[in-house]
Structures are given as structure tokens and as C-alpha cells.
Amino acid sequence: MSAMTRSAAPNNIPTSKMAEYYSRRAKHGVGLIITESTATSSTADGFPNAPRIITDGQITGWKKVTDAVHKDGGIIFCQLNHCGRISHTDYTDGQQPVSATDQRARGINKRNNQPYSKPKRLSQLELKDVINEFRTAANKCMLAGFDGVELHMAHGYLLDQFLDSRVNDRNDEYGGAIEGRCRFPLELASVILEELGENKVMVRISPSRWMGGVYDWPDLDEMLEYLLPNLDKIGLRMLDISCANANYFDTSGRIIRKARPLWPHLLLGGASLSKDDAQNEVNQGLVDLVTYGRLLISNPDLVQKFRAHSTLDEYHPNMLDRLE
Ligand SMILES: Cc1cc2nc3c(=O)[nH]c(=O)nc-3n(C[C@H](O)[C@H](O)[C@H](O)COP(=O)(O)O)c2cc1C
Fold it and tell me: Quick one: 118 exposed, middle or buried, by C-beta within 10 A (0-12, 13-18, 19+)?
């Protein structure tokens, strides 16, 4: 199950209803669950009622979720995220969002119909604070009973703001050429890997994704050829290639074909694939695990339906109104 923000955590505290929602998927046979985006600090948040993992209350709330999932035989990773400039002061307890840049993101934040807040460019000293927040959050995930964490480097959030040459306009060693733009995400991942070990850390990237059209990193091949071997070098062993809500074969399916020769370790990918397409991707050795998002909202029993060759219930966005 891929990460899906549900905005059902009042005061940023995971609820019993969330425990039921996740454990229902585990009970029906989902092997690995990645939680919704979870903020590592108040400035990292970017959504209404999204969970965080900072306070004791938030850890206790998550513990209810992980206990329920484990009781039903599942494995659950927490997606740790910093939204960076894809945020608004409404969601950061009034603090100015931060980014690789001080340029405001274009467009309107769909959550509150406001323009995104103008971000503050992170200083090098503040980059260390962000890493420490992730490190603390990762350790709190262990206290909360998670089996691991997924570091969100995808979909235009903070770590992707560093990777993406259209956003990262820094002229220090954390910007410029590919090596500079990859430096901060790699430093951060390296610290979390040292802290938790290779079996507990996954990274999600989206070199090609939907942004009102299919959008690729401008220097796609060079980025993959630098970033993937360097993720390998720092000890990462699990990589999730996402496309946000785009057609798989136009986006992440295409990237996975470029990434596989560069990535000999566990590779995850998918986006609403039919059972046959998913099986083909696995049989060809392109991915090791196929991820499902929306179909797991409309079909908590997706695994059983696949096994029984049953018809699937179609996803509709109004299903997001209720957490079931
Ligand atoms: C309602 C919703 C919320 C999402 N929230 C997140 C998120 O918090 N983090 C993330 O990495 N991806 C998020 N995604 C993207 C999904 O993880 C997934 O990559 C995408 O939906 C494509 O897969 P699918 O076609 O199987 O749904 C979200 C998608 C949806 C539909």
C-alpha cells in the first residue's frame, strides 16, 4: 500500500479510526503498508489534520496503529516527510515554510485555496536542524513500533526541491550541478541509514510525475546515473519509484526501465496496475513489489479480489471523505 494522505488526524494525532483503516488492509493480505505523509516538525507540515511524529501523544497514537497492523500480520513503514515550500502558514503553526529556494511555488494550495506561502531559503546551519528533526522522528518511529521509515524525496516536497534544477537555485554547495543538488538528500538519507540500519529505511523518488502534465526531471538520465549509485553507496537497499497520480507506463514504468540496471536492490513501483500488468512487471524483474494506492481505498480486500479474479470496485475521489 503506497502512502496516501488522508487528513484524518485532528491535532496531528493518529486516531483509533486510522488504526482500523490500516489494519483492515493488513487483515486482507496487504504485505507492506506505507503510511500517509507524516511531518517531522511543525514547519515540515503542509496539510490540514495530517499526522506528525513529534509529541508523546503522536507516538502513542501511532503505536495504536502499528499494534493493530502487526496483530493482523502486516508490516508498516512510516512515510517521513517535510513539505518545504509546498505548504502554507495555516499548516505550520504559523511559521514561515522553508525550502532550497526563497521562491514561492506557483499555483494554488488546493487545501485552503490560498497561494503557497513564500518560503525562507534554508541556511546550511538550518539544514543540519532539518536532518536532526528527521533523525529524531525516525527514532520516534521505532518507539511507535514501526518496522521502518520511508523518506519522501518525491512529488515536489522539500527533498525533491533540492533535487530539482527548476526549483533549487542555490549557489552554495547544496545547489548548482547534479552533485550539489543531490548532496542534502544524500546526507539526510545517510544519517537515517546509520541510525536505523538498511532493513528499516526506504526512499521514495519521482523522477517523472504528474503536475498538470507529465513532468520529468530536466536532467533525467544524468540524475538517475548519479543519484541511484550514490544511494547504493550510502547503504540504501530499498527504493520506491513513484509518479504521483499519473499513468504508470508514461511515467514511473518508464523510469523503472532506466533505473533497474542501476539499482540491483529491492525496487518498488506501481500505480493502479491491473493484476496481469503487475505480474508482468515482476516476472520481467523490473520491480520486486508492486504498490497500490487508490485501488486499496476502493478495495480494502484488493489482495483477495486479485486472488479470486473478482471485479474491482472503481476508485472515486469522494471516497476520501470517509476513512474506511
Ligand atoms: C488521496 C491520495 C493521497 C496521496 N498522498 C500521498 C502521500 O502522502 N505521500 C506520497 O508519497 N504519495 C501520496 N499519494 C500518491 C500515491 O502514493 C500513489 O503513488 C499514487 O496514488 C499512484 O498510485 P495509484 O494509481 O495506485 O493510486 C497520494 C495519492 C492519493 C490518491
Answer: middle
